[in-house]
């Protein structure tokens, strides 16, 4: 895959601020229903000012989806996710995923809405499936180590865990009384109590 070279932005209009606005509009209206004219109007710039940063709308989508996915995969590479008992590594990945969701809420929300309608979306879905496989393998390893109850299929357990994590996009709002760590504690306490074979 060829790497798209992103041009440096003009002063006052950073790529990050453009991406933030684009993701907000994609989430409000849907990616397909959003035009570059609308993005320009929302930013208060011309379309050419956007093209100074990125070559196309699809590149904005790719960058947004990669931002969410890169953050999730980074969690799986942290020391707590690669050393120790599988149940503890699984818990680390779940906690880290909640923190990513809280920190990158609009980007994760957009990721969860893609349906594979383009090559960029298909690539994002393939990466999501790879992340799911990592989690399923952790559940299976924890079961083999005797720490997770064996009467539920590891793939089902993985889907249930991350179905719960992903549902947070529907109601969690950063900056409220519930911090990301509090949220992760609550989710892990309720979910892992039913998963573990022993306290």
From TrEMBL:
User: Has keyword Cell membrane?
Assistant: no
Q: Which residues bind DNA?
A: 35-54
Q: Which Pfam families match?
A: TetR_C_24, TetR_N
Task: List, alphabetically, the PROSITE patterns matched.
Answer: HTH_TETR_2 (PS50977)
For this protein, the record's SUPFAM superfamilies field holds:
Homeodomain-like, Tetracyclin repressor-like, C-terminal domain
Which GO MF terms does the UniProt record name?
DNA-binding transcription factor activity; transcription cis-regulatory region binding
Q: List each copy of the HTH tetR-type domain by range.
A: 12-72
Keywords from UniProt, A to Z, are: DNA-binding, Transcription, Transcription regulation
Coiled-coil regions listed in the entry: none
Q: Does the keyword Transcription apply?
A: yes
Protein name in UniProt: Transcriptional regulator, TetR family
Write the lineage as a comma-separated list: Bacteria, Bacillati, Actinomycetota, Actinomycetes, Geodermatophilales
